Amino acid sequence: MILNQVRNTLRSKYLASVGLNYLRSNTTFNLNRTYTQGLSQSVINSLKVKSDLKEKREESLLGGGQKRIDQQHKKGKLTARERIELLLDDDSFVEYDSFMEHRCSDFGMNKEKYLGDSVVTGRGLINGRTVFVFSQDFTVFGGSLSSVHAKKICKIMDQALVIGAPVIGLNDSGGARIQEGVESLAGYADIFQRNVMASGVIPQISLIMGPCAGGAVYSPALTDFTFMVNDTSYLFITGPDVVKSVTGENVTQQELGGAKVHTQQSGVAHLAFENDIDALIRLRSFINYLPQSNRDNAPLRASNDPSDRIVLSLDQLVPLDNSAAYDMKEIILATIDEKDFFEIMPDYAKNIIVGFARMNGRTVGIVANQPKVAAGCLDINSSVKGARFVRFCDAFNIPIITFVDVPGFLPGTAQEYHGIIRHGAKLLYAFAEATVPKITVITRKAYGGAYDVMSSKHLRGDCNYAWPTAEVAVMGAQGAVKIIFKGTKDIKEKEEEYIDKFANPFPAASRGFVDDIIEPRMTRKIICQDLDLLSTKKLKNPKKKHDNMPL
Q1: How far apart are CA 544 and CA 74, in angstroms?
Q2: Does the active-site annotation cover 214?
Q3: 362, CA 20 to 30 Å: which among 80, 214, 324, 429?
Q4: Is 448 a catalytic residue?
């Protein structure tokens, strides 16, 4: 019902913009002899060009035709232009290259051409801020990528880099246009090159709203964030038919590369939305957290949530029993502005939480261990998830706030065999190289190497705090005592001695490894003050061609 209402609204806007009479009757302006009598050939030609221009613009708006538009709607999907209309501010879209056509003449392709080909490109505004956007049109050759299709995308990416504005790709394509052969493959490579050049310079967002298969998957993989739509989108390199012929497995498109697979198992996608409308509305909200480019500071807006708000509930959230679980999200929501938290990858590697929030109106990145899942231990997936997010924040000048409750790295042969050492080092590397403001709060456990990794003072943390419930130690008391006092009979007494000595924040505070032990209720006020102080922070890493992080 909602989809139909939005679709009808969008269609009405298009009818108004292209002329009701033309779309209803398909009549064109006729330069008859009576009208042109006495006019010079030059004037007649100008009038004809003007008429042709209007006709061609109207034609380009219909994409592959009404029949294919109807088929798109029956699948529960919006068209390429409807998506742009819903994503951008009203009347802000400026289209590029609407008259371009493919140049392929093989296999009868010269007999079927569509103005603008299989992608709509241009620029517009989201909440008054410039973005560049391309929307693949499945009604034209299944949205397949031709050389012209690629050129249109490359043009807006090039301009976005020069201007300094985000690029949003709305993907709905059957893949390479087979009729064009290697030209189509070259087009993909041209896009990939621009993805790489734009990385860390302007935000790049991919929204998968239909099929995305084969070589086409690598452009979203190179962008900063990949979002999907439940049930109607999928990503895979080889489809079900190829998988069956090679491995004998019977698998559907959704089972192979649907939104559930990539948001919960592979970690390829960051978030999935219910439908096209939900996706585009949420994307409008998401873009507000991001700066236009790496030349800009984190966005700052007016906030109605007092920066000095005392949060009494924080005093009660961490259980006195250090083995009891609690929900770290409750701490995050209580601390940030208006409980407004845009979580990234909420269904993948749930033992770590990452996402965007605001503190006193300023965008911040949140990284936090989740004691409810695997006791908050770091593992391979959580390390990679956290590292990627930290590096994005650092690239785009977004301060990082870290909440720590980590008992260590997850032990076991599975983790060791799959490279926990190398993957765990990614998170360490990301925090260590980051030059943005870094504020860390240890809420409870900070054990072993995981303490170092989670934005510790030793990794150039700017402001590091501990709650009274914090424990900074090499390991938990029980394990430590068994090693230190191996063979001793009175283990219980020794364990109590160890707890008394190390299971508190004072050893770290006495060495300057935390700047202060704070009351939980004061956390928001202190962080907001620190963010104001650190807003003029200037820190540069040594000059180098590029780093060599443990990929």
Answers
A1: 53
A2: yes
A3: 429
A4: no
Which residue of the set 19, 239, 267, 449 is catalytic?
449
Catalytic pick from 19, 164, 200, 215? 215
Give the predicted TM-score (pTM) of the model: 0.91
Q: What is the pLDDT along the chain (551 residues), one digit of tens a residue?
A: 554 555 456 555 444 444 434 333 343 445 555 555 666 777 767 767 777 777 777 777 888 889 999 999 999 999 999 999 999 999 999 999 988 888 877 787 877 788 889 999 999 999 999 999 999 999 999 999 999 999 999 999 999 999 999 999 999 998 888 888 898 899 999 999 999 999 999 999 999 999 999 889 999 999 999 999 999 999 999 999 999 999 999 999 999 999 999 999 999 999 999 999 999 999 999 999 999 999 999 999 999 999 999 999 999 999 999 899 999 999 999 999 999 999 999 999 999 999 999 999 999 999 999 999 999 999 999 999 999 999 999 999 999 999 999 999 999 999 999 999 999 999 999 999 999 999 999 999 999 999 999 999 999 999 999 999 999 999 888 888 888 888 777 787 888 888 888 889 999 999 999 999 999 999 999 999 999 999 999 999 999 999 999 99
Q: Is 425 considered catalytic here?
A: no
Q: Give the C-alpha separation, 356 to 363, whole Å.
A: 7
What distance separates the 2 farthest-apart alpha carbons in the chain?
Answer: 116
Which one from 124, 214, 257, 408 is the annotated catalytic residue? 214
Provide the 8-state DSSP code for 504: S
Q: How far is 275 from 210, CA to CA, in rounded Å?
A: 11
Using CA atoms, how far apart are residues 167 and 187, in angstroms rounded to an integer? 18
The one catalytic residue in 334, 349, 450, 480 is: 450
